[in-house]
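QA checklist item 7 of 12: single-chain prediction sanity check.
[x] sequence parsed
[x] length recorded as 171
[x] structure emitted
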Amino acid sequence: MDKSTDDEFASRNYPVNENMHAQRLEWRMQAVGNYLLFALVILALLGVFSDGVLSETTQTSPGGALTVEYQRMIRAQSDERYILRVQGEPDRPVSVTFSGDFMDSVDIQTLSPPPQTSHTTLHGMTLTWPATPDGRHAVWIMAQPQAAGYLTSSVTVDGKPGVTLRQWSWP
């Protein structure tokens, strides 16, 4: 029995009913699904859904007095790390003000070192640390976003222009 390769892709009725046009469509859809699944895994590994290369970022204020390291993509109800590096004036206390969604949608879990004083307003909070000989401070914050969505927050030092944090909080 001599069979041609064209016969393999022809619809037939024996031994079962086959519609090869529908079968080829299903194979194409399966291949597209495999590529999409592979792309989704790669994006997750790179940090589109949480920690990773695409999510990590650092913002520095125009004058260089403040640098904030944080994640662009975060998860609601999960601890997220923020590192603030502040360059204040030598031998003078330094005040850092948080405002926007950071105060409205995020719960601060840990703040180290603890500030000397703190003051809150309707949508903001100012923390003050004591003077240091060189004016440099490092502050570590562990915070927990309370809801999913887009968050825009502002962080300033001593009333000078600061940085704007833009984050997406996944559910």
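[x] summary fact logged: The mean pLDDT is 90.
[ ] second reviewer sign-off
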